[in-house]
Amino acid sequence: MADTSSSNAYWKANIRMIQISLVIWFVVSFGFGILLRPMLSGIKFGGTDLSFWFAQQGSILVFLVLIFVYAWRMNKLDREYGVEE
């Protein structure tokens, strides 16, 4: 990654992945667990309301999935720009 345009493109792609991950996590944790609680309260999942499940379990599980997807995508991005470990 010798030139500046390649470096800028790499960081732009990295920041874009971070932004998408944060939006997904926000929607799942704050949106489904708090804002959409009244709409999801009648839906049963795992013996409890879906909104409660998202607030207690779902956001954590989504966060873990996002970590693995981010690591996988960053490894792919690193290979594309020649900065792999």
UniProtKB/TrEMBL annotation:
Keyword Membrane attached = yes
Kindly state which keywords UniProt assigns to this record, in alphabetical order. Answer: Membrane, Transmembrane, Transmembrane helix
Q: Where is the Sodium symporter small subunit domain?
A: 8-84
**One Pfam entry name:** DUF4212
Q: Indicate yes or no for the key word Membrane.
A: yes
The record lists the membrane-crossing segments as 20-40, 52-72
**What span is annotated as the signal peptide, if there is one?**
none
Write down the NCBIfam families for this protein, in alphabetical order: Na_symport_sm
Return the protein name: Membrane protein
Q: Which organism is it from?
A: Thioclava dalianensis
